[in-house]
C-alpha cells in the first residue's frame, strides 16, 4: 500500500494530425484505463480511441452555444473526478498536448493530487510543435514568446518584439463562450492596433493552421500577410498567429563579460 487512494488519473494528448501524432505511451494509457473520457472533436480520432478501449465517454456535449467556457471546463473536471473518486483508473484524452492551453487537464490533475490520488500528465504534440516544423522556426534562434491572444492584449503590453511571438486563439479574441460554427470574433482590429505600435504596418505575420490530415495534398494553411492587412485574413477557432521578431543587436558589453568575441546565433 503506497498511501494513495484507489483510483488514478492520467491525461494524454492525441496530437494534431489524425492518429499519426499520438504517442505509444498515450495509446498504452488509453488501452489500460478502466474509464476513458475524451475531448476530441473529429470523428476518426473518436473512433480510434474507442477501438483502443470501448469504455469511452465524450465530454464534447458539455460545450454549448453561448455557454461560458469556464463553466464547461468546471463540468469536465467534475465528470473526470467523479470517475476517479469512484475508484477507477481514468485516462482523460485531449487533442494536441494535454497541458498546452487545456484548462481542465491541469485543474483535474491538481484536484486529484490534492485529494490523494495518483495523477500525471503525458506530453503530446501541440499546434506550436507543428508550427515550428511547418514554418521552419527554431525557438532557440531568437527566443520565443507564446500567449493566448486575449490574455496578451489584457496583460502583456511589455512583451519583447525582438523575440518570436506566437498568439493562440487569435480567431476568438475577447470571446469567453463556445463558438460552434468557427465564426471568428470581431476584435482582430484591436490586435492589429497593438501590433502596429510595436512592428509597424508592413511587418510580415503568418496566419497558420496545421493540417489535421496525414496526406501530402492536404498540407497546413499558411497565409503570409502584414500587420496592416491582418484583418483581411481568414481565421477560425483553430488559427494561430506567428509574428517574426524585429532585428536585435547583441549586447557587446555582455559579450565581453562572457568572453565571447562575436554575436552567437544558433
Ligand atoms: C484550446 S487551444 C488547444 C491547444 C492544443 N491543446 C494543442 O496542444 O495544440 C486551441 C488553440 O490551439 C491552436 N490550434 C489548435 N489546433 C490548431 C491547428 N490545427 N493549427 C494551428 N493552431 C491550432 C489555436 O490557436 C487554437 O485557438
List the domain count as a whole number: 2
**Radius of gyration, CA atoms, in whole angstroms:** 21 Å
**How would you sum up the major sheet?**
5 strands, parallel
Give the class-level CATH name of the largest domain: Alpha Beta
As for the CATH topology of the largest domain, it is Methyltransferase, Cobalt-precorrin-4 Transmethylase, Domain 2
Characterise this structure.
The protein is globular. With 266 residues, it is an alpha/beta fold. The strands form two sheets. It has a five-stranded parallel beta sheet with strand order 3-2-4-1-5, sandwiched between helices. Strands 6-7-10-8-9 form a five-stranded mixed beta sheet. Strand 2 (35-39), helix 2 (43-52) and strand 3 form a beta-alpha-beta unit. It has helices at residues 24-32, 43-52, 69-85, 103-114, 127-135, 139-142, 149-155, 188-199, 252-257, and strands at residues 8-13, 35-39, 56-58, 89-94, 118-121, 144-148, 164-168, 204-209, 221-226, 240-243. Helix 3 (69-85) runs parallel beside helix 4 (103-114). The chain folds into two domains: 8-121, Cobalt-precorrin-4 Transmethylase, domain 1, CATH 3.40.1010.10; 127-243, Tetrapyrrole methylase, C-terminal domain (Methyltransferase, Cobalt-precorrin-4 Transmethylase, Domain 2), CATH 3.30.950.10. The model has no long low-confidence stretch (mean pLDDT 93). The protein contains nine helices and ten strands. The structure holds S-adenosylmethionine. S-adenosylmethionine (SAM) binds next to strand 8.
